[in-house]
Amino acid sequence: MTAQLPFPTEATPNDWDRSGLPAWTYHSPAIFDLEREVFLNHWQVVGHASDIPAPGDWLAFDILGERAVVMRGQDGVVRAFHNLCRHRGARVVDGVQGNCRGAVVCPFHGWVYNLDGTLRGAARPESFGALDREKFGLKPIEMECFHGFLFLRFHPGPQPSVAELLAPFAEDFAAYRAAGLLAVGESSWLTELPVNWKSVRDVDNEGYHVALAHPSLQELYGRDYADHQLQGGINFSRGGFGDKPGRRWSVKEYVKLSEDPPGLPDHLKKTWTYYGMFPAIVFAFTPEGAQFYHEIPIGPGQTRLTGRQYRYPEETRRQRLARYLAMRIDRDTSAEDQQLTIWSNESMKSQAFEGFHLSDLEYGLRAHHDRLRALIPVMRLAKAPPESEIARLNAEMLGKLP
After folding, report:
1. What class has domain 43-156?
2. Each residue of 240-260: pLDDT tens digit?
3. DSSP 318-367
4. What residue ranges carry the coiled-coil annotation (predicted)?
5. Domain extents for the chain?
6. Across 222-248, average pLDDT
7. Which residues does residue 78 pair with via DSSP β-bridges, in sequence order?
8. Whole-number Cα distances in Å, 241 to 83, 190, 211, 213, 260
9. In terms of CATH, what superfamily is 1-42+165-402?
10. CB–CB of 317/309 below 8 Å?
11. What's the pTM value of the predicted model, to 2 decimals?
């Protein structure tokens, strides 16, 4: 069933280092501090243009001490700002998403901002002397839209633009008509796990465990599933289905109902496809719609898993039922992965754990670790340095010490 991919992928080396990151990097506060900058200077997905269709609609996004609001202006343009009033730093919007009718009003002291982020006026303006409104608009954040999906980057970083980074997948996103997707009701979901974020990625970055750990996925597409690594910290995974009817109720009924949307190329027909983006974003497409999910680190031992779901605008009853069944399969898979993540993360503090020894089918995990090592070279050390020395050693290894 496997079709030829339209983009070049990296072959697994014949002889490669099958180890992973050392266990100490999963519970070190100093490493977590260094990882914070990795997340802030790499692109993060916030939502889709369909989440904020009307002027004044907004999405909020918090990560590692930074707060953003993405808002559609009266002119229809989507912009991103720090969710931070220029007066005292209060949130100008609170919650996951909402709408501001005509203006944003800070709930602390009532400063008013236009939907394009400019300051309309301060409460009791005479108390501020000569206040230059042009200097006190909401602070913008770098933002990019790729086939409808909205990305932020809080700090300048090593990645190119999203369009450049995801260029190999541009034709796939277009074939899936991603720009025209619609949010599924209140499309967001979240859960928190008592684990390091890397443990979540370690589970999700390989398909070796599908056969045993995910019986529904194995039954649906496990016979055909494969992971592919590309340059630039992106990857592609694909599983074809439809060659067998399935025994589990959700799988059996899903295979009966699922229909490809028109215009899909051969390598996307009758597939579930996953597009990964470093450090922790995955876009998942089925014939019925799409979702993205990612990990938001909270602390060395706490991670928020969150994402959003989307459907096609002309959805038929049959597609809606198939999408529901796909959600059931995915819900079970997520629960299974969460348990595996907890077990894996627990092992990192055990004296008996001697590190990973990876299969060729887990090369994606190693590729992810290699990218982290390149950015945080102190992770190459097998034994943990003193916590107080980690930042200095890392700077030294990067050649950044004066």
Report:
1. mainly beta
2. 998 888 899 999 999 999 999
3. HHHHHHHHHHHHHHHHHHHHHHHHHHHHHHTT-TT-------GGGHHHHH
4. none
5. 1-42+165-402, 43-156
6. 90
7. 72
8. 43, 28, 15, 18, 11
9. Naphthalene 1,2-dioxygenase Alpha Subunit; Chain A, domain 1 (3.90.380.10)
10. no
11. 0.94
